[in-house]
Amino acid sequence: MRFDSFRQMLSYWARQRPDAPALRFGRETRSFSGLWEDVSRRARELKASGRTCVGILSDGSLACVTEIFAANLAGLQIVMLDAMAPEGLLKTLIRYTDVDLLWGDGELCEELSISLMGGVKDGAGKLLFFTSGTTERAKAVVLTDHSLCQSAYNGSEKLPLAPEDTLLCLLPLGHVFGFVCGLLWGLSCGACVALGRGARHYGDDCDFYRPTAVSVVPMLLGFLLRQGCVNPELGLVLVGAGDCPPRLLQAAAARGIRVSFGYGLTETSSGVAISVEGDPYAMEVCPDDTITLAEDGEILIEAPTCMMQGYYKLPDATRAVLKDGVLRTGDLGRFDEEGKLHITGRKKDVLVLPDGTKIFLPEYEARLMSALGHTELAVTLKNDRPLLVFVGQAEEAALREKLKDVMRELPRGQQLGGILISGEPLPRTATGKIKRWELQQKVG
Fold first, then answer.
1. What is the value of pTM for the model shown?
2. How far apart are alpha carbons 218 and 244 in whole angstroms?
3. Low-confidence residues of the chain: pLDDT under 50
4. Hey, what long-range contacts does 248-253 have (CB within 8 A, 24 or more apart)?
5. Which structural domain range is residue 424 located in?
6. N or C: which end of the chain has fewer CB within 10 A?
7. Helix, coil or strand: residue 22
8. What is the separation of C-alpha 396 from the centre of its chain, rounded to a whole number of angstroms?
9. Which domain-ending residue is among 286, 314, 344?
10. Among the three residues 323, 344, 365, which one is the final residue of a domain in this structure?
11. What is the pLDDT of residue 311?
12. pLDDT for 342-359, tens place per residue?
C-alpha cells in the first residue's frame, strides 16, 4: 500500500485490520487499533505540551515506536538520536537540531536536559536522521513522514509482505535503514512487526518471534548464520547498509532462505534498488526512482518522492550533492545487460564497516597523524575492522600507547582492529593520492 503519511497508514490499518497484531515487543502485543489509540492519545498530550522538537533516544521498544508516531501526529519535529553516543556529542547534536524535549532513558535525559534551548517553527512532518559517518562529518538529513512512507512503498513493490507475515526488526530505528526496512516495510503492508529485544537477544529473537522476514546488516547476518539462530519459518532476508561477502549470501541460500540485497542512502529515505531474484548483487531500481551513471561511473539518483529536503542548516553541503533534484552519491556502479544495477566501489574516501557505519578516511587519518607525529600511514579494512598501515620503523605497543586517547574518543566499532607496520611505501597515484583499492588488495 502507498501511504502519504504515518497518520494515513496507521488509521487505515486500524480500520481494515483492527484486531490483527501490529507490533510485538517481548510478551507485549499491540493490535492495529490499539496502536492507533495509543498513538492518538499520546499525540494529544504532546500537542498540549507546547514543545516543538523532540529528540528520541531510541531503544527500539514499543513505547519508543509509539512516541515517534505520536510526535509526528502532534506536529513536532523529530530528531533520531543514538543513545549509545558519547554524552558530549549528544549535547552538541541536541543544540544543533533545536531539540526542546527529550524522550528516552530518564537518567540520560536528565543529564542532557541542560542542553535544551531549542524549538522550531516549521518542523511538522520532519524527521532528522544522521548520516552514519564519523563524529565530525555526520550531518542531520531532513526527511519527512511522506518521504519515508514512499520509500516503504518502493521497497514493498519489489519485495511485498503479506498481512500474515511477521517482520523481525533487529536494526536500530535511529538509522533510516532500520526505520524503513525494519519497521515501516512491515506496517505499510499490514504485517506484524516484532521489535527486537536488544543485542543480548540476537541469538534467540528468531526462535522467540518465529519471523518470516528480517532486515539485517552484513555483520548481523553473519552472526545469525554462525550461531544457527534462524527459525524454519524465516523465508526472506533483506541485507543492506554495507558490503556483504558472497559466502554469507550463499550460506543463507543453502538454508532455503531467499536473500535480497538493497542499496540506498539516508538522503533518499533508504533503498533505491533491490535485488529480487537470481544474482543478489544485481539490483532492480525501485519504482519511483531513476538511476543514471556519470561519465566516471558515479551513481546519480533522482528520487522525487523519497529525496531529502536537505542537510539541516547546511545549505552549502546540500548544494554540493543535490542539484536540480539529482543526488550525487559518491558511489560507483554499472548496469548489466538486463539493466540491473551493480555497485562497484566508492568514489569518496569512505570506509564502510559491516554494520553500515562510515569512516571518512581523510579526517580519521589526520587524527592518527597528529597523535603519532607521522604522516606516512593509511587506514583500510581487514577482518571487518579498521587496520592502520604504518610505513616506517616502530613498535606496535608504542603506537597503540600514543593512539590511546584518540581511540577512547571513538565509538568502539570505529576503533582500530589492528596495526600493520610496513617497510613498503603506500601505493599512490601520480598526484600523490593513496590508491585505496590497491592498498585493500595488499592487506587482504
1. 0.80
2. 5
3. 133-136
4. 248/218, 248/221, 248/222, 249/280, 251/225, 252/221, 252/225
5. 353-443
6. C
7. strand
8. 34
9. 344
10. 344
11. 96
12. 988 776 677 878 777 778
